[in-house]
Amino acid sequence: FSRLIFGTLYPAYYSYKAVKSKDIKEYVKWMMYWIIFALFTTAETFTDIFLCWFPFYYELKIAFVAWLLSPYTKGSSLLYRKFVHPTLSSKEKEIDDCLVQAKDRSYDALVHFGKRGLNVAATAAVMAASKGQGALSERLRSFSMQDLSTIRGDSSSTVPPSVTVRTSSKQSQPKTSRSASEGTGSSGR
């Protein structure tokens, strides 16, 4: 809990104040802190597994965050200038190349899985329609005929929503349903 307050909320508020006041010196100070804190949080994810049994481990972590924040020790500035900045400066090109490759691979993977997902969804819809899944099948068929007549631009051949048009593989002429044919007295068009 104290790490949340002292390690995150306190610096976040003072970062806000630095941005609001446009004080470059304070802004740089808090940016260095956030870089070190991000590295600390990442390392902590792995070290917690192995060092949580160590006496006063959690107290040492709180003391480390306090050391990072202290205006007297300037811990985050010291760590950033001595270790992080030189390391990142020397490895910056390699890191940028890795990030670009990771971004490209993740985009390709997203497109690949997106296409697969759409194919699975389309296949499931076609399978459900082809197996005659009742209302879904009827709904898909009626939409298809309406869409075809709209594409042709033939307003006289639009199918009313209450009439379902079916095509048979034996006949080339579409038939209307029995209830629609009883009203007109004919069995087809």
Automatic annotation (TrEMBL):
Give me the stretches of Polar residues compositional bias: 170-189
Where composition is biased (Low complexity), the residues are 155-169
Localization: Membrane
Q: Per UniProt, what is one GO molecular function of this protein? A: microtubule binding
Task: Name the Gene Ontology biological process terms.
Answer: endoplasmic reticulum tubular network organization
Q: Which UniProt keywords apply?
A: Membrane, Transmembrane, Transmembrane helix
Cite a single Pfam family from the UniProt record: TB2_DP1_HVA22
Which residues belong to the signal peptide in this entry?
none
- The keyword Transmembrane helix belongs to this UniProt entry's keyword annotation: yes
Q: How does it sit in the membrane?
A: Multi-pass membrane protein
Q: Which stretches does the entry tag as region Disordered?
A: 150-189
GO cellular component terms, semicolon-separated: cytoplasmic microtubule; endoplasmic reticulum membrane; endoplasmic reticulum tubular network
InterPro entries found in the cross-reference section: TB2_DP1_HVA22 (IPR004345)
Query: Which residue spans traverse the membrane?
Result: 30-56
Please give the family membership noted in the entry: Belongs to the DP1 family.
What is the name attached to this protein's record? Receptor expression-enhancing protein
Provide the taxonomic classification. Answer: Eukaryota, Metazoa, Chordata, Craniata, Vertebrata
- Gene symbol of the encoding locus: Reep1
